Amino acid sequence: MDRDTSPSLRSMTWSHIVERYRFRKGDRSADMFSSALDGIEQLAVTVADGPLSSKLFGWVSMFELCIQQTDAIPYSGPYLRVSPLASGAVEFRYFDTAVPARQWHREVPPEATVPRFEAFVDQLHWIAS
Question: What is the pLDDT of residue 1?
Answer without folding.
Answer: 35
